Amino acid sequence: MSSTARAPVCSPGAARSAPAPPPLAPGHDQEPDWFELVGHFHEGLIVCDADGVVRHLSPVAERLVPEVVRGRPLVASGVAGLGRDGAAQFGHRGRRLRVRQIALAGARRCHYVEDVSEIVGHADALLAERARSAFLTMVGEKLGNAPHPDRAAAAVVRLAVPTLAEVAVLVLAPRCGRARWWRASATAGGAAMDSGASPVTALPPAIVEGLSGAEPHAAERLVEQAVAAGWLAQSTARQAVVRVVPVPGRDGPVAVLLVARRRTFRWDDDVELVRAFATRAGAALTTAVLYRDQAELADTLRASLLPVEPVAVAGVQWGTAYRPARASVRIGGDFYGSHRLPGGGAVFFLGDVSGKGVEAAVFTGQLRQCLQALHRVEANPGRLLALLNDAVLETDAGRGRFATVVLGVVHPRREGGLRLTLAGGGHLPPLVLRASGEVEAVPLRGMLIGVVPDPRIGELTVQLEPGETCLLYSDGVTEARGGCRGDEQFGQERLVDALTGCHGVAAPVLAERIEQLTCDWLAHGDHDDIAVLALRATGAAARPRRHLRAVPASGGSVGPWGTRP
Amino acid sequence: MTFTVTHSPRDGGGVCLRLAGELDLSTSGELNETIDRLATQGERHLLLDLSELTFCDSTGIAAFVRGDNRASAAGGWLRLTGASGRVDRVLQVTGLADVLRYIPDTMDPATPSRP
Known about the structure:
The complex is a heterodimer. Chain A is an alpha+beta fold. Chain A has 15 helices and 22 strands.
């Protein structure tokens, strides 16, 4: 453009007066040919006189609006956008034109016409792309936190309407021969949601195909199938277009997404968006399924590792307390339990295994299962512990795991009270709360379970009069560190002192009280697993016996131990 | 709350480990490491002198059992001596006092007499 403007300046006349390169400003006598210049503008020019007759027409304008003819009124061209009230932008011959009108001297007017098809196209594409990414980002965010597949599936169809479809159906990969589905349908106010389940055999063929990872294409058949499945109303079917895309998971599709929309919907443009949406839905569903599977697994395992409350036995009131060191996993290395014996009475036990946390908890589960099986063949406490020792040595070869256990058999006595036969496997000896208020340590000895073959196992008998209690506890109680210095052990002496005079307390209250004493001593410090198992001989004239769960001590008026049952 | 373990060769073979302080969850790892290191160096006979040890919990017990298992697997042994007070009580309660008792007169204490 600039070279065109400079050309006339280099005329022989100008060169004569100034041999140096010509100045930028053109001389008055060298007025450029303006119409030649505008021929190179992007805009086309149409100049009309006061009567609206076209007087000048630039080549660009001729090309953009060939209907306009020099010497004829502009309105005769029939191009609406060029009228006096024409739009600033209008479509013409497949192009997007922008026009601006400028008033010139002598009531003449000039129309500047520009082809903006490309610019508008870019802007549209940019806006569309921005809207798509915004939509997909929003989808990713909303789906990201669904912890359960059901909620993730519902969220997927809800998000698909109305951006992707008027009706969206998500069919989850079948479990146990049944496939569950969720549907969202556009309504005036938003979307209606419903869900259902279908046997695998009754699923539409396109869904089955989608579940195998393929994307079904026969559009007409898809509408039929959606209607047959009850997902699409017959009345809207004629105008509907249906698309089915697999929702990718870790190993093949985790679900299939069906979207239905009116025919005016441009599939070619948006099918990529549907696929991108399905990818995000797949990621969310896969995570949710994985999370659910792991949560189910963890719950099942945890439930099998938690101590089971003791069985009801005539004449026995049980009390228990259990506080794992790692509260977050809710399981630990202490265990207790009881089983009814075929000949009457029951076997009971409390123990502690080497190691900490989940690994220790798994070991306690194995010991409890061993005892569950072994008590059916051996009712003598010492021989039962010896069998347990053999079982641990055999299954634990070389891993060096072991347990400390107190195991006993309880029988109600004819004259009232209980007879306990106790066997020691390297565990802290039980305490007995006598009717006199005194606390006795049972001189029970014995060796760790699972360390040596044929271990020395101590055995002795304890008689409990009605109202007397035998207390089994783990070293998490006596080795709790705290107190004034913060590192002092609670110790057996303090425990005995605290229990002296507490012979009247119900077993559940006693167990809970010991847990409370320990935790108070800890003053929120770290602690080992804590387990307590208390057996109280109920009185001969006691009310109907039942196993009481630990209940919180009542207010101060009844003393620190709560009420007697 | 401190725990130290030092070791020196014994007359007639083997190593003596002197444990001092408190052996619990926070310090038993140190004992395990020392035992592992000695085992790697080929030491099969470990005598643990507990006379300066003031406390031992179940993780300490586990360290003794683990060490003895490891030494036994190599044809050796781990034995305890000098325990008193609370430490001796823990060894009595768990029965380890009998299993891992060091009997100087016995040439090979790997198979101590048991009742």
